């Protein structure tokens, strides 16, 4: 799964470089998740997961607190959680997750982004069957063998554990994300480079350079949309 980690790094690097957009998207997601349950992460596990992920992207505390206060205040903004699937150049596949208060606007914007950048939207299920919903946790300070041992002691399993770029990357079942992170904390891991669930491709595609540039334009166009939260794809992008 090493090359899949490269794609996750690429996505995270892109977000780190566009902090104002990322913070706005996190603010919206925190508000929606807090409003769906309790605005307290100890009573709302979904919120706890979002806040842990926000921490790895260095989302300012003020933005988090503003979103939580908005949820506590009973704001009546309603958002729909949507997933679009589509195709990019030369057989590449994409999944687009969105939060929107205007479904017609969002589907129009997503369709336009695909159409203007060498892609086209597919029907529901046309792409997602080729991806696996997976928890991904990355951190420093232990070996793969040590990590496997501590997970076994906690009666937890992992799909894969790899060492790459001085990091340990754990791929696990999505419902095990918090349990795995808690086991790591108990073992002395206090800093995490990544804690999130992702849609990882079962197989990865390599594109010619021009097709890859076209795909990157498509990904950027989708990421730039206000309503889009996440974009996943099945291409093994070249490292700079």
Can you put this structure into words, describing what you see?
- The protein is α+β, with helices and mostly antiparallel strands and 240 residues long.
- It has 3 domains: 2-72, Arc Repressor Mutant, subunit A, CATH 1.10.10; 80-129 and 204-233, 2-Layer Sandwich (Alpha-Beta Plaits), CATH 3.30.70; 130-201, YebC, transcriptional regulation domain (Alpha-Beta Plaits, 2-Layer Sandwich), CATH 3.30.70.
- It contains 8 helices and 8 strands, in the order H-H-H-H-E-E-H-E-E-H-E-E-H-E-H-E.
- The chain has a 4-stranded antiparallel beta sheet with strand order 3-1-2-8. A 4-stranded antiparallel beta sheet has the order 5-6-4-7, with helices on both faces.
- Helix 2 (19-36) packs antiparallel against helix 3 (45-56) and helix 2 packs parallel to helix 4 (61-72).
- The protein is globular and about 50 Å long.
- The model has no long low-confidence stretch (mean pLDDT 91).
- Belongs to the TACO1 family. YeeN subfamily.
- InterPro entries: Integrase-like_N, TACO1_YebC-like_2nd/3rd_dom, TACO1_YebC_N, Transcrip_reg_TACO1-like, Transcrip_reg_TACO1-like_dom3, Transcrip_reg_TACO1_YeeN, YebC-like.
- This is Probable transcriptional regulatory protein BleG1_1703.
- GO terms for molecular function: DNA binding.
- Keywords: Cytoplasm, DNA-binding, Transcription, Transcription regulation.
Annotate the secondary structure layout.
Blueprint: H1 2-16, H2 19-36, H3 45-56, H4 61-72, E1 80-87, E2 93-100, H5 103-116, E3 120-122, E4 131-139, H6 144-153, E5 160-164, E6 167-172, H7 177-186, E7 194-201, H8 209-223, E8 228-233
Antiparallel strand pairs: 1-2, 1-3, 2-8, 4-6, 4-7, 5-6
Helix pairs in contact: 2-3, 2-4
């Amino acid at each position: 799964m090493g090359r899949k980690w490269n794609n996750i790094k690429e996505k995270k690097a892109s977000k780190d470089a566009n902090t104002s957009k990322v913070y706005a998207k996190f603010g919206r997601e925190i508000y929606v998740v807090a409003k769906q349950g309790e605005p307290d992460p100890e009573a709302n596990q979904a919120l706890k997961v979002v806040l842990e992920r926000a921490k790895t992207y260095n989302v300012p505390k003020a933005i988090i607190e503003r979103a939580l206060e908005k949820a506590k205040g009973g704001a009546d903004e309603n958002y729909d959680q949507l997933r679009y699937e589509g195709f990019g150049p030369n057989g590449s596949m994409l999944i687009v997750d969105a939060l929107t208060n205007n479904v017609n606007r969002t589907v129009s914007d997503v369709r336009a982004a695909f159409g203007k950048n060498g892609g086209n939207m597919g029907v529901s299920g046309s792409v997602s069957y080729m991806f696996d919903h997976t928890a991904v946790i990355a951190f420093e300070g232990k070996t793969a063998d040590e990590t496997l041992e501590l997970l076994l002691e906690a009666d937890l399993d992992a799909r894969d554990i790899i060492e790459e770029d001085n990091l340990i990357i754990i791929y696990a079942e999505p419902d095990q994300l918090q349990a795995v992170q808690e086991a790591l904390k108990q073992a002395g891991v206090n800093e995490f480079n990544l804690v999130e669930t992702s849609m990882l491709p079962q197989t990865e595609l390599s594109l010619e350079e021009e097709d890859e540039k076209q795909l990157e334009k498509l990904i950027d166009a989708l990421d730039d949309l206000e309503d889009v939260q996440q974009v996943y794809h099945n291409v093994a992008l070249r490292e700079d």
